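Help needed: design a sequence for this.
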């Protein structure tokens, strides 16, 4: 959109009214998963009262957007993108401050400052809350009754699902006895009657969460800080949504992503894909109700994996797990249908909410998705390490070359932090991908890898190019192939070789390039991305705190999630200091100056 006035352009899109609510000026923000923070009053995890301190911190650093990961209730893996409901909130985030009878209790079994959240706290917290609930007289709680009426689309089914799951020892709904698995009405009615206290407790928890989150949202508005939520494009197979509306999902398939340069076998996420025809036949009410509830809390909403609304990688559910995403196909299969398919769904989303929609559009994105986001006035994501001229210069773009209609950032919740990227990933290729490509061409990987890659600088499944392989001809010579045989290899090489040297030069860093990222180098690249022409720039709290090396030692372990893996270290990283300490930390003045200098103060 070169040469176009962004305000004039956006005003005339279908998102124009929502842009007017937020404003057209450039803004800075911070991504802070609520589980990563804690205060002196926390109980093992950040809570909705702590969110107010997060808002205070954002305000003090001139950031006007606080971005959260999905706040939906999570399952056994505590992954917010594999939630047990598109509506219900995670009860671990309930603040006990509203309940004086338990507010002073501490969880002695869980240290205040571990490196990772111990999610056993959820059970202990729920036991405390159950005690409160059982002593609470709700006979005249008219606002609780109104909450139930307003959320009748999802709340009763969710509460029933939760209690049924507990009665089935945590088994997924598709392993329950037939009358419950298949939602036999009389069986459900009798079960609810027999377990009315437990069912009502689940609804009461959601009411408490609603009130506390709403209070934090009002607090943010008073501080002129926007809260940006996250709408996962998918929901867990073992979820209240799928149990309640199985016809809305294609249960014979598992969603994922095709193989790419970062995941050699692709990815298998496991969630079922949508039956959009069935959802459309119900007037898209399922989607509209999601937006209606999210709008209670958020000003801006991130659409996760937006390309999945155009076409989604669908893997046969019974395919072997070790195949990951290799055997998937796109749904719809016919590429000619993608444009109309995605536009129709996005049109429903935009026209049924007052929230400003942004989209996660990373990876291989078809042109129809790019065009639709632009036409609809929806921001995409520009992640610095991938914002490059991939076809000609094979180099990073300058700030003035970023998309105007974008959220710029240094990292995402699925990547390494920027310091770790610089030290371990810049100038590398994925080992698994390179091996697979060698096998396809009958190239001896063991033989060529010694000639092509520097073993002393190759870590964590990444292969660093030898400096001596400084042109395509040398690369082809060592590979033993002609140019026309290995165009994809050449593309890998040209877009990864000497990445560090190229960025060092663009950032105008003094002296020789360093292998590790200093605080000064991070500050340079932070200013670089803040100065981009992207309308929003939202960096993770981890990258902000890296400006003063608050995370000590090797930066690699400090990440929120490693895609495609199951680990207690995923979705559990905690900051090394409390929110009270963060609010008075000297790094705040540095961040504030950088944001103000970038003219992102609205």
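Sure. Designed sequence:
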């Amino acid at each position: 959109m070169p040469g176009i006035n962004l305000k004039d352009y956006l005003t005339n899109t279908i998102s124009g009214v929502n842009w007017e609510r937020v404003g057209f000026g450039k803004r800075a923000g911070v991504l802070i998963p609520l589980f990563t923070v804690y205060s002196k009053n926390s109980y093992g995890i950040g809570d909705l009262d702590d969110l107010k301190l997060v808002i205070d911190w954002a305000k003090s650093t001139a950031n006007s957007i606080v971005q959260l990961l999905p706040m939906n209730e999570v399952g056994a893996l505590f992954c917010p993108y594999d939630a047990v409901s598109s509506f219900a909130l995670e009860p671990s985030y309930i603040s006990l401050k509203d309940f004086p009878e338990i507010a002073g209790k501490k969880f002695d079994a869980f240290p205040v400052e571990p490196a990772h959240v111990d999610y056993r706290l959820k059970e202990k917290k729920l036991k405390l809350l159950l005690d409160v609930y059982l002593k609470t007289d709700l006979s005249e709680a008219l606002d609780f009754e109104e909450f139930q009426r307003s959320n009748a689309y999802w709340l009763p089914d969710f509460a029933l699902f939760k209690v049924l799951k507990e009665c089935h020892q945590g088994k997924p709904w598709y392993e329950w006895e037939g009358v419950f698995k298949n939602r036999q009405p009389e069986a459900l009615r009798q079960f609810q009657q027999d377990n009315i206290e437990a069912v009502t407790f689940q609804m009461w928890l959601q009411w408490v969460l609603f009130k506390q989150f709403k209070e934090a949202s009002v607090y943010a508005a008073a501080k002129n800080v926007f809260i940006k939520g996250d709408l996962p494009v998918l929901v867990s197979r073992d979820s209240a949504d799928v149990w309640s509306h199985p016809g809305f999902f294609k249960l014979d398939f598992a969603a994922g992503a095709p193989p790419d340069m970062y995941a050699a076998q692709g990815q298998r996420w496991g969630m079922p894909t949508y039956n959009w025809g069935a959802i459309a036949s119900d007037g898209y009410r399922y989607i509209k109700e999601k937006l209606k509830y999210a709008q209670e809390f958020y000003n801006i909403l991130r659409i996760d994996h937006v390309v999945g609304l155009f076409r989604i990688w669908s893997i046969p559910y019974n395919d072997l797990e070790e195949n990951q995403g290799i055997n998937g196909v796109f749904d719809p299969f016919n590429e000619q249908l993608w444009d109309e398919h995605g536009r129709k769904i996005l049109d429903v989303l935009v026209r049924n909410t007052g929230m400003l929609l942004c989209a996660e559009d990373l990876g291989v994105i078809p042109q129809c998705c790019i065009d639709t986001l632009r036409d609809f006035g929806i921001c995409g994501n520009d992640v610095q390490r991938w914002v490059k001229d991939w076809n000609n210069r094979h180099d990073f773009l300058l700030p003035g070359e970023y998309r105007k209609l974008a959220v710029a950032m240094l990292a995402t919740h699925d990547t390494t932090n920027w310091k770790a990227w610089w030290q371990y990933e810049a100038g590398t290729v994925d080992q698994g991908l390179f091996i697979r490509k060698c096998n396809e061409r009958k190239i001896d990987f063991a033989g060529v890898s010694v000639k092509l890659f520097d073993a002393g600088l190759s870590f964590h499944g990444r292969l660093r190019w030898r400096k001596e392989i400084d042109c395509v001809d040398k690369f082809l010579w060592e590979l033993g192939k002609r140019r026309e045989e290995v165009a994809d290899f050449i593309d890998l090489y040209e877009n990864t070789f000497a990445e560090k040297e190229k960025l060092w030069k663009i950032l105008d860093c003094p002296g020789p390039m360093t292998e590790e990222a200093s605080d000064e180098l991070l500050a340079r690249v932070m200013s670089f991305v803040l100065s981009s022409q992207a309308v929003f720039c939202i960096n993770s709290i981890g990258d902000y705190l890296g400006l003063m090396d608050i995370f000590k030692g090797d930066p690699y372990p400090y990440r929120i999630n490693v895609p495609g893996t199951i680990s207690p270290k995923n979705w559990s990283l905690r900051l090394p200091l409390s929110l009270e300490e963060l609010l008075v930390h000297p790094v705040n003045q540095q961040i504030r100056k950088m944001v103000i200098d970038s003219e992102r103060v609205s």
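The longest strand covers residues 226-231.
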